[in-house]
Amino acid sequence: MRMLALLTWPYVRKHRLRSLLTLAGIVIGVAVFVGMHTANRNVGSAFARTVDRIAGKAQLQVSAGETGFPEETLEKVQSLREVGAAAPVIEAVLNTGREGQGNLLVLGVDMTGDRSLREYDLEDEDVIDDPLIFLAQPDSMIVSKQFAGRNGIERGGKLKLETMEGEKEFTVRGIMKAEGLAQAFGGNLAVMDIYAAQLVFGRGRMFDRIDIGLAEGVSVEECRKKLEALLGPGFQVETPSTRSGHFEAVSRALGITINITSLFALLIGVFIIYNSFSIAITERRSEIGILRALGASRGRVLGMFLGESLAAGLVGSSIGIWLGLLLGGAMTPVLGTMVQEVYGAPQAGEGSEAQWWLIAAALGIGMLASVAGGILPARAAARVDPVKALQKGQFQVIAAGENRMRRLVAFAMWAVALACLMGEGVTFYAGYLLMVTGVILLTPALAGWLARALRPALRWLRPVEGALAADSLIQAPRRTSATVAALMLSLALAVGFAGITRATYGSLLRWMNDTLNPDLFVWPTESITSRTFRFPASVEKELSEIEGIEEVQGVRNARVLIGGLPAMAISVSIEISSRRVPVMAVEGDPKEMLPLAAAGKGVIIADNLSRLRGLHKGDMLELDTPSGRTRLPILGVTVDYSDQQGAFLIDRSLYRKLWRDETLNGCRVYLKPGASEEKVKAEIVKRLGSHRRLFIFTNEAIREYILNITNQWFGLTYVQVAVALLVAVLGIVNTLTVSITDRRRELAILQAVGGLRRQVRHTIWLEAAAIGFIGLVLGLAVGAVTLYYNLEMLKRDAIGLLLPFEYPYGFAAALLPVILLVSFVAALWPGEAAVRASLVESLEYE
Amino acid sequence: MNRVALAVLLCASAGLTQEVRGIIEEVQRRTRSNSQRYEGTLEVMDSRRRITTKRWQYERIGSFGESKTVLRFIEPPEVKGVALLVHNHKERSSDQWMWTPALQRDRRIALQDRSTRFFGTDFSFEDLEERDVDHYDYKLLGEERLDGAMCWKIESRPRGSKTSQYTHSHAWVRKDIYVFAKVEGFRDAALVRRILYRGYEQVMGIWTAKELEVYDARRESRTVMRLEKLEYNLPLKEEDFTLQALRRGP
Predict the structure, then answer these.
(1) For residues A753 and A758, what is the distance between their CA atoms, to the nearest angstrom?
(2) Which end of chain A is more exposed for a tag (fewer CB within 10 A), N or C?
(3) Could you tell me which of A188, A144, A191, A150 has the C-alpha nearest to residue A170?
(4) Which residues of chain B make contact with A193, given a CB cutoff of 8 A?
(5) What gap in Å lies between CA A363 and CA A357, rounded to an integer?
(6) If you compute the radius of gyration of chain B from its CA atoms, what whole number of angstroms results?
């Protein structure tokens, strides 16, 4: 501790900027870790809170996936002796259309019975000024105090919302107190009569859910078993807390992405720490030499540097946690919107929550990463020979023996990694870690080779400065390798993500070109993934009667449970699909599978569902529907990107029979040859638009929409690139600082014998560019490996999609100027520091 | 000796219970009719003394325990056409449906929900049900004078099979004309609801209270119901008391 106070503290005070850069490594790693997990946790717990608050006193909830179920189910449920109260519910998320107000969760309930399960704590005692009017008038709504306050709505006020019948004015007949139920969905909550909600949201005579309160003396388990026996396997009978657990299942791919990003951010942090400590040791080598000469044991020196790294870890982690919480708060609404769009999980962020376990984990991981980054430099410091301590440059050399050992270990790791490719799960991912660790071990050698290869080019550019820059890198591989490794890792990650984006884009475009061929899409919502509003089946006929329309294909998409996990049921007329849509078959012959599927004799599953669940042609798909458990043969497997959890195609007639659901999510419209798209659109609006909420998308608009969602999903790539660039700047600044310190005398001699300041600057700039370039080359190579593993991870464990390996050459090419520019910017300050240093002092150095 | 005393006491007690039950049966016998029709006015006064008024038409066919009733709101315009159909059963709780004309929808009101207020009034759905004497145990608590008339004060407790929001009720039955003067419903020791019967008139030979006042103890609000154009034993049709008729309207 005394050594820390006597030696470390003065060094930190003298090199404030450098110390801050050292901390930055851990700060970035911890901030990304905390930020991503906080945002994910916020979204997850907002969903859980919404479920919990809406559930009220309900101890069990009955649902049937996303499809809903016929009203008659309610009477069956109510007839059970174990059921004390059963209240039907419809949930819908609407865009308020008010700037900054986001979405509104509308809860359709039956007010004649719902109050036995939910407390509608109203502002005024008679919250609803007249319950009979509330029920009699379908425009009645109760809103939360928060929502009313934010929108300046009072009791009796009007609220305009989009409904199935177009924009409709609702009358606010009650305002709920800002507590309990009213806090659900971030306070953006409205309640209306369930039968009005059926009309407004086009649900037909269906309910989404039944909330259940138990009869006195009945246990949850007892009631659940009775309900399951009564309703059959097509229904899920769960506690509200189990239902919130579904969020984790559907957002699994997101969780994996977040974990990988956090891991990489931390790894990069380790390298920055390693780099910074290496600098510190280089600069303080003489100090260490003196200490050792004065009798300080190796253990004490090691302890001092480890203490420094621990202290840096503590401070860096603390700042990182604070920044991460801010970052998490800022990311929550973005992530929340994305999760709602992709998974349809109703939630709204309610601020950022600090998770104690996460803070403790971040602190531990940050300090561990700091120690991991500092241990090698600390070990090196402890081994400093007091004599060699005064010989600049020697320290940066890696001995031939060490190089050989590194090579041997790296090759052994790669051999094991190759063997791990055959493995599954942890073994497979351990292989990736071994592969990357092997590359890291070889980084000094690889950087040296590349520097040698670059030397002629650098010399060609600037004969003297180029040669000096290249030699500096060749002679001090240890100094360069940490920066190169950090840059390599971050760029590899960015390339991996960019590769996935490219593969996804490519596959999506191919899929859209081949299969997404309707001329128009008529949907009741502005977002085709939203399943809030539905058309009645009659819309299909109404549309087909419009002149210029050749054929209409109604679509009903609904997330259902297969083996307890969600998958998307896509129900369409397969007869129309077989004529209109080319099938990209993976298993089975389209000529055989399509007629059978059209006749309702089985289903066709998406390739990702096949991979995720191990299902193949000829297997039976077990479906729990409101009509009971059904086993349908799998007639074939096709390429289909409809859903991350996998989808299956089922003929509409069979779906209607099994799920007793007549509604439609939308209609695909095929025009007659020569028909004017504009005229047909105008006619649709004229005929249906006056009494129905509808949005008409052209084929082009739908493609754009799908790509936009994909863009949002891959927005993380940009975060990766930003982190990579930041690492580049930090690493290169650090490395150049060490380089200049090491070569202070050399650079001073250059100036003393007539070298121009310009030449010194150029030397530094070229060195920086070379470091950036080497990092880039290695990063692009490791990026290819990362991309392979990313694709495998998506295929094996995340979403089951088989995406082709398509290296993102465009992205890689774009990185070259960016990295060179960043390297140049990073070299500006060290370059100036080198030319502005006192010649006398520099010549006296050593 | 003790056994004899106990037997005498039990017999006396059973006799007394039988006698009290007889009073209730007599009340029901005297008010029995094959059908009934009236127009009612409802005034709901909340704890802040704000008053809302509604009018309805009421029709009943059949007698106690197995009657069918239809209640249609006629005022104010916002609720006009909203209707309630009740099928009472001797062996079990009644079936109730509500018709909402603006939605063109009927909804079933579930058994578990009958403790809730009847459309913002201080009646609960259960209060509108007919009480079968077989579903309750009765006990005479004494005699009291109420508004100048002597009354029996009778306690009734629902039997096991009967689902009720009240653990027990106290009813005051006028000795002179065998009608209820007051009923109080309790949940354990706490008063839940009090109904006062006023303005008794003999209509077509049946003593009928033309004004009922319900007091909700928790909300401290009151509802006054006045009966007009009251008629008994009309020739009503069975098919007008069905769900189809409810949807069809008057």
Answers:
(1) 14
(2) N
(3) A191
(4) 103
(5) 10
(6) 19
A216 in reach of chain B (CB within 8 A): no
Q: What is the ipTM of this complex?
A: 0.77
User: Are A531 and A609 contacting, i.e. CB atoms less than 8 angstroms apart?
Assistant: no
pLDDT along chain B (250 residues), means of 10: 41 55 87 90 79 88 84 87 86 82 83 68 78 83 90 89 80 92 91 92 90 88 90 89 84
Give tens-digit pLDDT for A797-822. Answer: 766 677 788 888 888 898 889 888 88
For A214, the 3-state DSSP assignment is strand
Q: Which residues of B touch A130 (CB under 8 A)?
A: 52, 78-79, 120
Cβ pair B111:A78 closer than 8 A: yes
Angle formed by the axes of helices A298-343 and A699-713, nearest 10°:
160
Range of the domain at B46: 2-248
- Whether B79 sits inside 8 A of A125 (CB atoms) is no
The whole-angstrom distance between residue A635's C-alpha and the CA centroid of its chain comes to 34
CATH number at residue B227: 2.50.20.10
A245-270 pLDDT, tens digit per residue, is: 555 555 566 666 666 667 767 777 77
A20/A229 Cα distance (integer angstroms): 64
Q: Cβ separation of B120 and A112 shorter than 8 Å?
A: no
A374: left (phi over 0), alpha (psi -120 to 50) or beta: alpha
Q: Residue A132: its chain B contacts at CB < 8 A?
A: 54, 73, 79, 82, 119-120
Question: Which residue shows structure tokens 């799960």?
Answer: A425
Q: How far is A158 from chain B (nearest CA, A)?
A: 16
Window 119-138 of B, Cβ < 8 Å to A: 119-120, 125
pLDDT tens, position by position, A393-438: 444 555 666 778 888 888 999 899 888 888 777 788 888 888 888 8
Contact A131 B107 (CB under 8 A): no
Pairing relationship of beta strands A620-625 and A565-572 according to DSSP bridges:
unpaired
Selection from A277, A333, A361, A270 nearest residue A34 by Cα: A361
CA A617/CA A639 separation, integer angstroms: 13
CA distance A661 to A680: 28
Beta bridge partners of B152: B143, B173
- B52 at A interface, C-beta within 8 A: yes
B53 at the A interface (CB within 8 A)?
Answer: no
**Which residue in chain B has the smallest CA separation from A114?**
B113
Name every chain A residue with its beta carbon within 8 A of the beta carbon of B108. Answer: 74-75
In terms of Cα–Cα distance, which of A194, A242, A245, A233 is closest to A86? Answer: A194
Pairing outcome for strands B95-100 and B105-109: antiparallel
Q: What is the pLDDT of residues A114-167, one digit of tens each?
A: 666 656 666 555 445 567 788 888 888 888 888 888 788 887 888 888 776 667
CB-nearest to B113 from A116, A125, A128 is A116
- Put simply, the answer to whether A126 touches B73 (Cβ < 8 Å) is no
- For chain B, the domain total comes to 1
Domain residue spans in chain A?
1-59+239-391, 60-238, 432-517+707-846, 534-692
Q: Are A125 and B115 inside 8 Å of each other by CB?
A: no
B245 CB near a chain A CB, below 8 Å? no
Q: Which amino acid is located at A338 in the chain? A: M
Answer whether A171 touches B (CB < 8 Å): no
- A84–B112 CB contact, under 8 Å: yes
Phi, psi at residue A646, to the nearest 5°? 100, 150
A598 pLDDT band, cuts 50/70/90, is very high
Whether the pLDDT of residue A584 is over 60: the answer is yes
